Amino acid sequence: MDQKHMTDEGWSGSGSPGLTLVLFASIVCAVTVGLYDADKDARTAVATVTDAGVAVAAGGATATGATRATEFTEATGFTATMEAARATPLVAEFIEVLPGAPTVVANPTEIEDELLASPMFQDPEFLREIGRWVYFWETRHSKWLPTYLERMTWFEDNVDAVLAAHELPWSLRFLPVLESGYSPTAVSTASAVGLWQFMEPTARDFDMEITRIVDERRDPFKSTEAAASFLGQLRSDFGSWFLALAAYNAGPERIRGILRRHAPGAVLSDSLYWAIRRHLPAETRDFVPKFLGAVVVAAEPEKHGYAKPDRRPFVFDRVLVTARTSLAAVARAAGTSPEEIARLNPKFISGVTPPSRNTYVRVPVGSADQLRANAARRQGNGGGS
Question: Please, are residues 60 and 72 in contact by the beta-carbon 8 Å criterion?
Fold first, then answer.
């Protein structure tokens, strides 16, 4: 991907991304302090995206704002009906156990970040808009952001590794903070699902399985790989990270239509996103500055009133089980809770594995020996639970 470079007073994308992030955050925060000290009561109304924690089925919470109304409902992934539970075996046949630790990229901040090198960071109006969203993440969303940052520690190793493999900006690691609160089970009112909030047609374009039993949009590994591919494709198509992010939010065809109507023949650039902003859907109008506000706060939470969360990497062993295995049986045999198995396996949305094939299920690290022993003992007792 071509790297943008600024001359004279601008920033160069070839420098240290860590330094770029510090400069970016410093300027935005300076603008934020000036803006809100001068006129706190005149702040633009901003929307909140609530996270009700863990809710079953149609549970969840809704928040509204002047520019956006979004509802997230979260399910544990362990939502088998009583009928499904009765139809599944109480003892799973465990065929194979494999380690499943995520790949770790050594130092993601060593990767050049084209997104944070945008010339738009010289635009005072744009910086003020980011400042409003920094304030949002510091205040209006302070109830939920600590949970988002904690969940980010589960998945950030894999996200960083995938972004690096695709040569994408490191700052995109913060996109799921905005999209889903880093929840694999987040569902929007528009039925976008998972960390990266894929709609079903787009997910199928990237070979994600979606059935009554499995929804791979909820799988943090499969969906992250798909998101990286999609984001890279959008950057190539639109020639600008800001336009690419707008297309990620609103859909590529919708953004192409807006460009055809309101900016025919214009050079594709980050500044074009800002120029056509009033023609964008309300959510997309705010999407880039809100994302960049999240980057500022989530990259250095201690500077914005949050404790840095303890790391809790998403590590596991993998167990190959037979078709139509109950996740409850896996939990019992592994000596863990159904909630932990559901956390490790959010793609299983009915509490059982697919009926037509053997499937890998994730279990806590080190539980393989106990799982084998318990499964063998139960099978020796004739399949009792």
Answer: yes
Among all chains, which residue has been given the structure tokens 């929307």? 47
Using DSSP's 3-state secondary structure scheme, residue 97 falls into strand
Coil, helix or strand for 315?
Answer: coil
User: In the prediction, which pLDDT does 361 show?
Assistant: 95
User: For the chain, which domains are there?
Assistant: 75-101+315-380 (no CATH), 137-304 (1.10.530.10)
Q: For residues 269, 274, 275 and 278, what is the CA-based torsion angle, rounded to 10 degrees?
A: 140
Q: What is the DSSP string of 101-131?
A: PPP--S-GGGS--SGGG-GGGG-HHHHHHHH
Per-residue confidence at 108, pLDDT binned at 50, 70, 90?
low
Q: What region, left, alpha or beta, does residue 60 occupy, with left being phi > 0 and alpha being psi -120 to 50 degrees?
A: left
Q: How far apart are CA 62 and CA 273, in angstroms?
A: 29
pLDDT digits (tens, 9 = 90+) for 336-365: 999 999 999 999 999 999 999 999 999 999
Determine how many CB atoms are found less than 10 A away from the CB of residue 253. 9
The total of other beta-carbon atoms located within 10 Å of residue 232's CB is 17
What residues are paired with 317 via a beta bridge?
99, 363
- The per-residue pLDDT for 331 is 94
Q: Report pTM.
A: 0.75
Q: What distance in Å separates the CA atoms of residue 233 and residue 246, rounded to the nearest whole number?
A: 13
β partners of residue 5? 12
What confidence score (pLDDT) does residue 24 get?
A: 60
